[in-house]
Amino acid sequence: MTDTVWWKHGTVYQVYPRSFQDTNGDGVGDLPGITARLDYLAWLGVDAVWISPIYPSPMADFGYDVADYCGIDPLFGTLAEFDALIAEARRRRLKVILDFVPNHSSIAHPWFAESRSARTNPKRDWYIWRDPGPDGGPPNNWVSNFGGPAWTLDEATGQYYYHAFLTEQPDLNWRNPAVREAMHDVLRFWLERGVDGFRVDVIWHLIKDAGFRDNPANPDYAPGAPEINRFQQVYSADRPEIFDVIAGMRDVLRPYGERVLIGEIYLPVERLVAYYGPDLSGADLPFNFQLIQTPWQAEAVAELVARYEAALPEGGWPNWVLGNHDQPRIAARVGQAQARIAAMLLLTLRGTPTLYYGDEIGLGHVPIPPGRAQDPWERNEPGHGRDPERTPMQWDDGPNAGFSTAEPWLPLSADWPTRNVEGQRSDPASMLTLYRRLLALRRDHAALAVGDYRGVKPGAAEVFAYERFTGDEVLRVVLNFGAAPQSLPLPEGDWTVLLSTRAGRAGDSVRASLALDPAEGVILRRA
Ligand code: GLC
Ligand code: CA
After folding, report:
1. Ligand 1, closest atom to CA 61?
2. For residue 498, pLDDT beyond 90
3. Most informative mutation of 101, 202, 374, 386 for ligand 1 (most atoms within 8 A of CB)
4. Which candidate, 64, 165, 408, 476, has a CA 20 to 30 Å from the CA of 30?
5. Closest approach atom of ligand 1 to CA 104
6. What DSSP designation does 286 have?
7. Is the pLDDT of residue 3 over 90?
8. Which ligand has the shortest distance to the CA of 166?
9. Structural domains of the chain in order of their starting residue, each with its CATH number
10. Model's pTM, two decimal places?
């Protein structure tokens, strides 16, 4: 296994820093908090931690509006505390991945202040400025991802600037070589400090149509869906020139050795795989969010996996994601029983898995009381806010679940006194134990970490089954997506249960047929 690069056989764990661990009693998580919990991550058995943005920011979009790409926001700590985090992670053989937010800065970034100051300012072209349309309104019909127009008029200079997200998040102009150079310097700044890679925010957005043509209407738009879906994002994102930009980032990483470039990309499979780039010059891991977007149904998931595997370019390494800080939690979407199946799926498919903090204890949907909403999207388009998946990690049954000595910035889930790390740690039937065992199996079995994949006939419509194998070992994963028990034929030979989502079944021998409980998943090894 050690002959593959770490980000292929390893697993990634996403920390939303505001919600992991607070150490200074302000109700918001911080860097020393992450450092304090590295032992937990090592115990859990993940390989890398990706930290959502920690840079100085007015926090209009909770750090995805960066005012200084080479600093740490005082809310999270200091550069010295960041260096300490890196050093402590190293000691535990954990990798650290930073969030890189190149599509837009904060409106408070000095670059934007300069750009805005005059049409003749040398940094004018660092952002995207256009004259008003013929009617004096916005230059085209592009809509913000958070609802409303994507253009804001600057009265003083008489031009509009473009922002794919909030008014407070002006888009940088990646067609300008000076912007590319400045951003490459940012990457080098963090690489020199020892980070192991970057998750690049909305990477498919960086280049827009040179002619700023109107986006076509989306014929499938359903009222009530976010306004961004009214149009197909044909001209505002996923443009052909993007691959040159990504190759430029990859070139910056190359001299530093085994560093990973992960790209955030919400596109259908055929477009997604293009982001491996010509001759793999693109993202190492174009984030694959297809499991989030596919109905939770055995046949649909089996078909998705086959389609994705078939679409991968030669040499392109797969990856899978069940949730992140922008998506409803997996347990909220499919329920606790199926969330166990989901964990087994995520950690046994071929490709690098990314776990979202809290999913390993089965955090579900946390209702946000009126008046406590934080996400700006919730204010713009009520009902679409992302607070329910950003609530604090629950560590123990002490005050505020061990997250903070103060009232947390978002509420805990109501069941925190029992749904927490301490309570689940030693419970053989807990979600946490399941995750930890799955992660351990992935480390111990090359077939799971780096082996081949083949779908097999499940023997029942509500079951998804596949094999992971190397020359030495064949493992079979059988997942019951249904609420009925199943009895399934097994190929000849003796099979051993390596792990079941049902506690106490590991070690059992099975022959000829396999009985599954409702919503049970098992990993079998051929003797
Ligand atoms: C990405 C982030 C999201 C953020 C947006 C704008 O989608 O994951 O949280 O709001 O980009 O930066
Ligand atoms: Ca804090």
Report:
1. 10
2. yes
3. 202
4. 165
5. 12
6. E
7. no
8. 1
9. 10-103+177-296+318-328+352-413 (3.20.20.80), 110-162 (3.90.400.10), 297-317+329-351+420-527 (2.60.40.1180)
10. 0.98
Share of the chain above pLDDT 90, in %: 98
Pick the closest to residue 69 from 78, 57, 59, 82 (CA basis). 57
Report which of 98, 102, 105, 111 is spatially closest to residue 65, judged by C-alpha positions.
Answer: 105
Q: Give the residues surrounding ligand 1 with Cβ less than 6 Å away.
A: 61, 64, 101, 165, 201-202, 264, 325-326
DSSP three-state, residue 52 = coil
What's the rounded Cα separation, in Å, for the pair 330 and 332?
A: 5
Neighbouring C-beta atoms of residue 484, cutoff 10 Å: 11
From residue 149, how far is each of 249, 376, 435 by CA, in Å?
30, 15, 43
For residue 1, the model assigns a pLDDT of 61
Which residues are part of the catalytic machinery?
201, 264
Atom of ligand 1 nearest to the CA of 65: 12
Q: Could you please report the per-residue DSSP string of 212-250?
A: -PPPPB-TT--BTB-GGGGB--TTTS--TTHHHHHHHHH
Q: Whose CA is closest to atom 5 on ligand 1? A: 64
Q: Give the type of residue at 307.
A: R
- Summarize pLDDT for 189-200 with one digit per residue, the tens: 999 999 999 999
- Cβ contact 329:300 at 8 Å: no
Q: Model confidence over 261-314: pLDDT tens digits?
A: 999 999 999 999 999 999 999 999 999 999 999 999 999 999 999 999 999 999
**Could you tell me the distance, in angstroms and rounded to a whole number, from the CA of residue 276 to the centre of ligand 2?**
37
Per residue in 103-119, pLDDT (tens digit) is 999 999 999 999 999 99
Residue 229: what are its φ and ψ, rounded to 5°? Answer: -75, -5
Of 80, 10, 82, 26, the closest CA to residue 53 belongs to 82
Nearest alpha carbon to residue 455 among 442, 472, 441, 467: 467
Cα distance between residue 148 and residue 438, in whole Å: 43
3-class SS shares of the chain: helix, strand, coil, % to 5: 30, 20, 50
Alpha helices in 95-168 (DSSP H): 110-117
Mean pLDDT of the chain: 97
For 472, what's the count of Cα atoms within 13 Å in the CB-facing half-sphere? 5
Cα(409) to centroid of ligand 2, in Å?
10
pLDDT for res 370:
86
d(CA 455, CA 86): 40
User: Within the chain, what is the greatest distance between any pair of CA atoms?
Assistant: 78
Q: Give CA–CA dist 55/43, Å, rounded.
A: 28
Q: How far apart, in Å, are the Cα atoms of 511 and each of 2, 45, 113, 173, 451?
A: 34, 32, 70, 62, 24
Q: Check whether 397 has a pLDDT greater than 90.
A: yes
Other CB atoms within a 10 A radius of the CB of residue 136 amount to: 8
**Which residue do the tokens 């908090």 mark?**
33
